[in-house]
Amino acid sequence: MNIGDRVRLLTGREEGIITRLLSDELVEVAIDNDFTIPVLRREIVVVAAEESKAFGKSAAAVESEKKAASSGAAMAAQAAKKAGMATEAPAAKPAAKGESPTPIKADKAQPVPVQKGIYLALTHQSPELLALHLINHTDRTVLFTLGEEKASGQYRALKAEKLEAKSASEALGHWHLKDFDQWSALLVQLLPFQFNSPDAFELLTKRLQFRASSFYTSRQPNVPVLQREAYLFQLDEKPAAPVALPVAETEPAANAPAAKPQPATDKQQLADKLKAQLTGNAPAKPAAVAPAPEPAKALVAPSHEIDLHLEALQPEGGTEGLSNSAILKLQLEAFEDTLSRALATNMHEIIYIHGSGNGTLRKELHKLLSRNRDIKFFEDSMKEKFGYGATLVRLK
Known about the structure:
Elements: E1 6-9, E2 15-21, E3 26-31, E4 35-40, E5 44-46, H1 47-55, H2 59-70, H3 73-82, E6 117-124, E7 129-137, E8 141-149, E9 155-163, E10 167-168, E11 173-176, E12 185-193, E13 200-201, E14 204-208, H4 212-215, E15 219-220, E16 230-234, E17 242-243, H5 264-279, E18 305-307, H6 310-313, H7 324-344, E19 349-353, H8 360-371, E20 375-380, H9 383-386, E21 390-395
Parallel strand pairs: 18-19
Antiparallel strand pairs: 1-2, 1-5, 2-3, 3-4, 6-7, 6-16, 7-10, 7-11, 8-9, 8-12, 12-14, 13-17, 15-16, 19-21, 20-21
Helix pairs in contact: 1-2
């Protein structure tokens, strides 16, 4: 069994996709491309392989079904069939006497065209080897940098190039599907540019951490520019905004007084200074020292459990005399900071320990969570230990 295989549980009717190989006996299966559970290998069976044995399909058909299952095409076809959208060729009309019958071709569903944008595409070089490309499907030139972020949080720069409009880069790297659960997160920086354009654009930064539940459903049959099948991910969901530049005054105002001509003595002094500089006798000016740039801070994922009690947030003390509103503000700031880092680092869930008390902090947290579209759901957690003093947050 490999990552991406569609499998069925032997003890039930559930089907899913293998997302990780946890050990020799245990795998992780994503049910409905979302909910993941650990399952023993002996309790699951590969859908395409077992059904082909029962119905006697060819090896080519087995491979085709396996690919369709991994990309989610099998589920889409089944849903279309239930909705009465199956495309079958209608019966040919009987031909008139002396005429040959005219065959009628079945209608094929046209793929949804890919909108303009900048994409990262992974194409098959072999069944297990993928090549990484950047696609510029826009009307502007793009300067880009590509790097990877290790599990330890260390960043390593890989590539920096210019990508012309309506073009694709050469292969920027090769990844093996068998090592899917060990792929590093990618960090891509994009700077659009257009010759003679009146606008300058801001730098776009995109961090990609691949998940099997969404990776295998991103396959497109014919991506732009490359004109071949690929796993496609858009990098510029939010287009780069033009930079507001300050307007420099290059001409004097209409009411400004005219500049007075310099007297002869001033001209003589200016000529003496220029002569001294040319002969090397002018005093050396101190070199301007540019401040050293601050190193980019690595984005660190928060811990799985966050304690929002005041003594946990400020263990060194110094919180005497704080009002209840000031304490609540401090707790909410810690909550928002850890939640944003959890979303940015693709965490699945996080637990907040807020205590029961009078319920004010719990009510504020639940209010903010209910408005956040990146939250799948939240519920009380570890009631046997905290009662109603802890909340589990499941992230999308």
